């Protein structure tokens, strides 16, 4: 059977069975939970956690940056771990570990109290009262940040298994031409998780404490594990997958065999060194390096952006964030577009995917206008960031499936892990850089009634005098002090606005840069058969 015959046969067998979409739904809910767990900190740190532990933007940047690198390194091994354990057990281990990690955040306050004062057997409220009596705020910062970093480490190790396992499952249950669409559906779980987070997490934190937000959201993963245990098996072994649906799922085996001249896929173990011999690996890794950080920046810093630039607390920001992530649901188109190019324009899967990714790469350029037009209304940057986020998710669904296009199934999770490592490195750089940049611009570029902050208040030139000055004014950090000046009628221009403009500009050009390099490394479709 040639490729044309295989495509024409699809129409007769496509409706024979639909169980693969039940598996896709499970992947969707896993990804939703994944992103809910990841969002709890970003939606609680500014209003609830930072005042308790005296954090700055740089402290939060350190935590998010280290989470990114933990996640990145874990992705490298998670891919091989999933390949080794195989999909079912690998996924169970992943979500079990990250759910434990999510819940661990809730106990960081109690642990901070125990380490500093020796009072371990206290409740959440009791730990707050004890920490508030500690005069050494630097010690509180260092201990609490270290504990949150540990909790983020456990979360990252577990969450790293989600996408390698999900991509491997997609390759098992879908033919190549449908994988981008299936990936866009489960990847939309990231958007739905981000969408649900701002309308649930801040209100849980406000009503029951930030600790309960971590516990309640973290517990969802344990529920998902039960469904996975009973619903998943290999398609060729699953009683609910009909022979017709299995034939549809495995249609590429014949086509790829023909393209490879009848050479079958080897069964030997895939090594990392072998993977790096292929330009396809480097293309995927570079694309992830350039673009993953953009999404993580929007995910981790948009709530803080609305707080710093527009003075919103986490509950006031709920509606704008909900609308923002609602816009990103347009990313479903990202899975449909390459299928259109393949079926209607006669392109091969890789060519159709790269054409679609080029289109998506232009939309983030709108981010260049987010800050300059933000004076009109906060809705302008919210809508622009939403469009950029939708473009990212569309891009992400397709860049993930380029791995399945090119590599044998046994290597997919490993290659995905390599790309995840590259993406995590990019995310680490942008998150750490953002925190440092925002503190720098706020301190050095802010003005009060036209006078530079450091001239009017030289106390901020030294950490010791700054601490004493803020304590005297009854505020926890520089941003709170600037807000108090604004409330008092002073004309305050916060330098952090320029910091966000710089980061938005970097984010805007990342996708076109990534696409150009990817296309240069792998200009045409050619499946790998010697790995």
Automatic annotation (TrEMBL):
<feature type="transmembrane region" description="Helical">
    <location>
        <begin position="354"/>
        <end position="373"/>
    </location>
</feature>
<feature type="transmembrane region" description="Helical">
    <location>
        <begin position="210"/>
        <end position="230"/>
    </location>
</feature>
<dbReference type="InterPro" id="IPR036259">
    <property type="entry name" value="MFS_trans_sf"/>
</dbReference>
<dbReference type="InterPro" id="IPR011701">
    <property type="entry name" value="MFS"/>
</dbReference>
<protein>
    <submittedName>
        <fullName>MFS transporter</fullName>
    </submittedName>
</protein>
<feature type="transmembrane region" description="Helical">
    <location>
        <begin position="318"/>
        <end position="342"/>
    </location>
</feature>
<keyword id="KW-1133">Transmembrane helix</keyword>
<feature type="domain" description="Major facilitator superfamily (MFS) profile">
    <location>
        <begin position="23"/>
        <end position="526"/>
    </location>
</feature>
<feature type="transmembrane region" description="Helical">
    <location>
        <begin position="179"/>
        <end position="204"/>
    </location>
</feature>
<keyword id="KW-0812">Transmembrane</keyword>
<feature type="transmembrane region" description="Helical">
    <location>
        <begin position="499"/>
        <end position="518"/>
    </location>
</feature>
<keyword id="KW-0472">Membrane</keyword>
<feature type="transmembrane region" description="Helical">
    <location>
        <begin position="91"/>
        <end position="117"/>
    </location>
</feature>
<feature type="transmembrane region" description="Helical">
    <location>
        <begin position="294"/>
        <end position="312"/>
    </location>
</feature>
<feature type="transmembrane region" description="Helical">
    <location>
        <begin position="19"/>
        <end position="36"/>
    </location>
</feature>
<feature type="transmembrane region" description="Helical">
    <location>
        <begin position="137"/>
        <end position="158"/>
    </location>
</feature>
<feature type="transmembrane region" description="Helical">
    <location>
        <begin position="60"/>
        <end position="79"/>
    </location>
</feature>
<dbReference type="Pfam" id="PF07690">
    <property type="entry name" value="MFS_1"/>
</dbReference>
<feature type="transmembrane region" description="Helical">
    <location>
        <begin position="379"/>
        <end position="400"/>
    </location>
</feature>
<dbReference type="InterPro" id="IPR050382">
    <property type="entry name" value="MFS_Na/Anion_cotransporter"/>
</dbReference>
<dbReference type="InterPro" id="IPR020846">
    <property type="entry name" value="MFS_dom"/>
</dbReference>
<feature type="transmembrane region" description="Helical">
    <location>
        <begin position="412"/>
        <end position="430"/>
    </location>
</feature>
